[in-house]
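re: ur question from yesterday

yeah so i grabbed the chain u mentioned. its 355 aa long if i counted rite. heres the sequnce exactly as i have it in my notes:
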Amino acid sequence: MGTIYRRGETYWIKYYDGRGKPLYESAKTDKMMVAKKLLSLREGEIAEGRVPGIHFDKVKFDDLADDLLSDYKVNGRKSIVQVTASVAYLKVYFKGMKVREITTAKINDYIEKKLEEKFAPATINRQLSVLKRMFNLGAKANKVDRVPYTPILKERNVRKGFFENSSFLSLRDALPEHPKGVVTFGYRTGWRISEVVTLTWSRVDLKQGIVRLESGETKNEDARTIYLDDELKQVLESQKERRKKLGTALPWVFLNADGTDRVKRFYKAWKTTCKNATIGIKLFHDFRRTAVRSNMVRSGIPKRVAMMISGNKTRAVFERYNIVSDADLRLAAQRQHEYLQAQMVTKTVTIANAK
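ran it thru and got these structure tokens back, copy pasting raw so excuse formatting
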């Protein structure tokens, strides 16, 4: 049985956990009835086999943040850099705060402050997803007894850029020689730039015409195999020939200008080339939308196969890239017009034959 006693003006309670270990907790009140209710609550939790609430009262935001970063390091997650940055922003507001104090109201207050600081909704959502991940891990580790509802902001800044074939050719032809193979590979496969520039010859089988990434080498952790078309074979064969001329044993397929390392950033050359080619502001990531919308789905490749080639794990993410362009709308209008015209001709012929 638990007991109630006083320390100065404040009531304290003493009770025992499931193993008979005594636990002491301040009721934070000078009223006996409040202390009795707290003792009854704690004894009820223990009787039901639950962890007593005093355990959760001691856990702070910093504990959950440390556990999250440790989990990402142990599992070698590629997004640890972005997650670390999000944790840093969250710490400015939540550092030192007890987990039980982090309510939906507190989270809404955090959102308001970030909006006042001109953070984009998408950026805030990334931070909120990290906070939610902290709580979910904490729940699994029995460090929190609840996961607060976390609102998600509507994102209005979803990019819809993509390349028409003519704009791609203008860009590729105007770029320096060493990144041309990178952009061609990205344009035709929809792979992320990190996947293209880190591609090694151990993943290439030119004889079979296959390139394969193993699980753990991709963002979504899934293995991926693509079969090379003639242009991609030519791109890789030219890279192999260049490697031979340089006399290098470096493992990467795409090497930098002097052949001493893999291709890394070529943002400056890309930006200048986009400007000179008058194709507007483009991102390498626009190749993912282009590969999905123009080079795969519109050419008749089944969506499931297109997802496997481009590395989109879920249908929702895939459809985000499968956007509709002005050209698609024009083509739809033209096809509708042709269909209706054909229907009118058919009707006219039928009437004439009836007469």
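noticed a couple things. The first helix runs from residue 32 to 47. also The longest strand covers residues 10-16.
anyway ttyl
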